[in-house]
Write a structure and sequence with these properties.
about 190 residues; alpha/beta; Rossmann fold; 6-stranded parallel sheet; 3-stranded antiparallel sheet; 6 helices; elongated; binds zinc ion
């Protein structure tokens, strides 16, 4: 049975690397898995999915993919799976469209993305994925203290910031994965004062 799957994690959970490895596994078996990412996610340049570990592969934009005649595309090209990176940037409507792809064309759709933003609120796309997915799988990563990190803090000049755009990417901002306690206290690393 084909499923809509949301594999979510905090920053640094190797989500892109996971997406690329899954596509590679399909390819190795002579199968065709299409890689997609939202066009609004342009951190890595156009139409490429890149992991911090150095893996990369070409992809299509979600917007282009969904605007074509999907029935015609699937009629001329056998598609075994669809893999979406940075799925937190999908709109709720796009998530619904991919649920239709699963149900109408019986093609599995695997979405990789963040659960919450730097203010610990669900991204709209992630919220819709949590609502609609057949399978939810957490990709674990750990806080500096060793506990499971389920939150992402935005760091500017070495400090956790509380305000700003949900979608701000790049610039001088960086992100760090923290456990709930250290996310809420804003302690982004061990203290060497004592
Ligand atoms: Zn911690």
């Amino acid at each position: 049975m084909s499923k809509l799957v949301f594999r979510y994690g905090a920053m640094g959970a190797s989500k892109s690397a996971n997406a690329l490895m899954v596509q590679f596994n399909y390819k190795e078996r002579g199968m065709n898995a299409i890689l997609l990412k939202p066009a609004c996610e342009n951190r890595d340049g156009a139409k490429i999915i890149k992991s911090r570990m150095g893996l990369s592969a070409e992809c299509e934009f979600v917007e282009d993919f969904l605007s074509q005649d999907l029935g015609a595309r699937f009629a001329r090209e056998k598609v075994d799976a669809i893999i979406i990176d940075e799925a937190q940037f999908l709109s709720p409507d796009q998530v619904d469209a991919f649920a239709d792809v699963v149900d109408d064309y019986h093609i599995p759709v695997l979405c990789y993305g963040l659960r919450t933003d730097f203010q610990s609120h669900l991204f709209p796309g992630s919220k819709r994925l949590l609502e609609l997915s057949d399978n939810l799988e957490e990709i674990p990563t750990i806080c500096w203290c060793g506990k499971k990190a389920r939150f992402v803090a935005r760091i500017v000049n070495g400090k956790k910031v509380e305000e700003g755009e949900q979608f701000a990417l790049g610039g001088n901002d960086s992100y760090v994965a923290l456990c709930r306690k250290h996310f809420r206290s804003g302690m982004i690393g061990p203290s060497f004062d004592d």
